[in-house]
Amino acid sequence: MRLLCAVVLCLLALPVLAQSVPRGPNAQNLADLDPTTLSDAELLELLNRYEAARRGLPQRVGVFGIPSGFGAPRGLGFVSGAVTNRRDRAQIGDWDASVVLGIGLGDARRGVAVTPVLDLTSVTPHHFGESGKLSLQFSRALRLGPVWQGAAALEVQNLATWGDSRVLDRNWSVALSGIRPADGLFGHPVMLSAGWGSGVSDRSTAPGVFAGAGIGLSHRVGLSLGWYGDEAIAGAMIWPDPDKNLQISVGIGDMTGAVSGRRLLLALTLAKPVGRR
């Protein structure tokens, strides 16, 4: 049952980087852009984002606790830590933690992007890294009409495992996500996400569906509500500094008590460009 929590913690630690990293251009990156390299759709999206930034509209949004169709942008590395007060959903006060590292590779707009994710499920000082697993996410950007920006992803979990995580079965999931940026019609960004996975229901041991919705309330706060197999997960995302890629997520797992596993979920994610993008 301890490993069940490791699976859930990995989902919570994974940042929704494609939509939580600021996407509004600033003067410097606008100066570096060559408009001749952009398609008409990409140029229109860039102008829309610039206009939203100019008007001071929120630009960050995410869904907490479920897989996303968006992968990490190319060249963006991230590290996440997550903790919960119920390691196996059986007793309160049985704390557990996980640390996740990853990087975005490839270009989801022109091909298939790959996000390798290393999940360390043993993080105590004397046993750090002795247990863990490796997963891969493959994502592709989609155009969902003139307003919505979308992406689809296939994630394969537990490709390689070691330590206590060796008992985990290999699982996979598919997800489709869409974002409606804030504009003059609706001044808040909205995200919808849904999918299916082989290890989602029955405490992450059986196939099941997941879905969720999120809204960006301001430059610093967003809310989301999701369903993952057999439990509802509510979350709040906090960006302390809108100009930095730091996200704090606070949530409640099994908020309805459907599987007698109501618990506190905390995650901290820091992202930073790595090398040349």
Distance between the termini: 40 Å
What spatial order of strands do you see in the largest sheet? 1-2-3-4-5-6-7-8-9-10-11-12
Mean pLDDT: 82
Percent range of helical residues: 10-25%
Work out the helix count. 5
> Which radius of gyration do the C-alpha atoms yield?
18 Å
Reported for the largest beta sheet, the result is: 12 strands, antiparallel, barrel
**How many beta-strand elements?**
12
- Strand fraction equals 35-45%
Q: pLDDT under 50 segments (min length 5)?
A: 20-31
Structural classification:
mainly beta
Overall, the morphology is globular
List the quaternary state of the chains. single chain
The helix-strand sequence is: HHHHEEEEEEEHEEEEE
Would you write up a description of this structure?
The chain is mainly beta. The protein is built from five helices and twelve strands. The chain is globular.
Condensed summary:
Helix content is 15%, strand content 43%. It is mainly β and 277 residues long. It has a twelve-stranded antiparallel β-barrel with strand order 1-2-3-4-5-6-7-8-9-10-11-12.
